[in-house]
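Run folding on both entries below.
>entry_1
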Amino acid sequence: MLRFAKAGSLSASPPNGAAWYTPPTMTETTKLDSDTDFGPLREAIALSEAARKRGNMPFGAVLVAPDGTVLARSENAIVTDRDITSHAEINAIRAASKHCTPQQIAAATMYASGEPCPMCSGAMIRTGVRRVVFGIRATVATPYLPGAVGAMVGSVDCRKVFAVAPTPVDVRGPVLEDEAKAPFEAFAARGAR
């Protein structure tokens, strides 16, 4: 952390002798706690194929409460909505916000067909989502999305973004990566149709 000690000079020492902040170590976890995670993740993958068929990028998301209640389902709609922020996870949060309390959203698990981008990861931090399960890694998905306008896919590992969250975020993925890759392969072969 750099801070101004006085005008024109920088100090690299922490204020008042405070210890440096070290984010928690985030490791790649592909193991799920429960078989109940596979259903919502497969639904997110199916939504990613639906998004592709509608002319959008192949991403889908399902937000699920701890008791298994689906709070929101969504797909990427950046082309059809003409809104570059219309990512699947953001759309799920927006939909859930219309009928859920902030506490319900924070307690939910976000199932995403693809690894969340920095914008979506930031939205989940902001809404307090503490558990994320994703299918395909961004680094694997990126080659299937050539020329994607404004794509940040693969630019930043979501665990690095979640590492700065005020509360720990349990990130599980990649999970079912081969299944999650299919809509991306179709997108690369046939495009959004």
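>entry_2
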Amino acid sequence: MKKRLTSFFLAFAMFMTLFLPAYADTYSTDFMISSTSAQMKKGEVMQLTVYSGTSEAAQVTWSSSNPTVIQVDGTGTVRALGLGQAVITATSSSGVTATCTVEAKIPGIDVSQHRGTIDWKAVKQAGIEFAIIRTGYGNENWAKQTDTYFEANYSGAVANGIAVGAYHYSYATTPAMASQEADMVLSILKGRKLDYPVVFDVEDKVHYPLNADQMGQIVNAFCSKIQQAGYKTAVYSFVNFYNARLTNPLVTQYDTWIAHWGVSKPNFNRPYTMWQYAAQTVPGVPGLCDMNYSYFDYAGTASQQPVRPTDPSVFISNAPATYTFGDTKDYFYKVATADSAVPNVSSSDPNVAQVKYSHQSSDGYVFRVTHKGAGQATITTTSAVTGASTAFTVVGNALPKIQYFTDAGSSVSLQKGQTYSLKVMPTTLATNVKFLIGNSNVVKGGPATTTEGGWYYPITGLASGTTPIYAQVGDRAPVLVATVTVA
């Protein structure tokens, strides 16, 4: 029995040695590529090399999975012909393979006033090719909610040859609010040329309770108005919200800018043209800066700037047939015309709404309608050149008087260093409420949180003294909530 087993193992060992040379030839460490992944810009060239042990491998065949975007020749020279991804495969004469995943994309950043003063020359020298710049947020008070650094950031980026787009942080929970946010954006842009889209940024907690159909209506209200003004548009959000709420065809018809940090690829199974992948330091930008890749050459397409009509008979308003005021005080509309003179405007009832010229755009003129009271008024715009006219109706609402009550009464006492969560209950609930402190040296306020019938507003005593606390709805006059005394 022992002899039979010994003979069997010897025969098996001899049999296995027949396969050892073939196994050694396919062992990956004997056929290694110089890089397994690479990032390139469009037009760049790089060299890949395959090694067999410590020597450069001979008789290697090269191929690309997407040669229209990433091309490779017989020597391993890789060229980025366009934007996209490809797998470069090197194959030995015996069939062993090694691969390198190559992506060709455009590096960019997005910025707002929170980054402070930016050295755009240094940004350009760091290799950044595009910047998406915030116009502002919401639409309740255009003057206060316009990004204070938009003008400087736009001018600085353009002056240094960086392609520019814009984004607006939304608080819209209805299509009407989204449309008003679009009006605000267009009033800030003033017909400026953009290379990249105007992006609708929907990521705030006010959007969480809304379903996909509601978000579709909101996104479409904003983006369609931006497109009508002659700009490209896109939608931005983080990957989880996109997958859960931004699935309606009214959203997916627009380009996608997806945010997903700390991954090699977004967990997103739909097409996207831009990816925000991290926050990093960038020369010229104070603090950490949002980093992006663009997979579409927006700057290489037609410029985005509304064009003035050449036909003198064109006199078109972008206002709806009827506009109803909510908490917003002002509404802006535009008339596209070839006229060289500012059209005349009038209101049939100035007690309901007043109208005046705001500014000139690249394709016409923009006008401001100011809400004054309850009722209806007809806003008429008439050409000073041809006499052509266009009109629409505005509906004003009687603004209800709001009173505020607190769980501590109209007078609140605090000690220095003490924090109290003040429950504020209004007679009429509103969504766009902010709290103001008369003397911030005496009391500091924190972020308000909603509760049934009102809000909790945390206040902290800082120094001895007395200060009023106000609540303000939109751009209406602030209303006294309580007086706080710090001992």
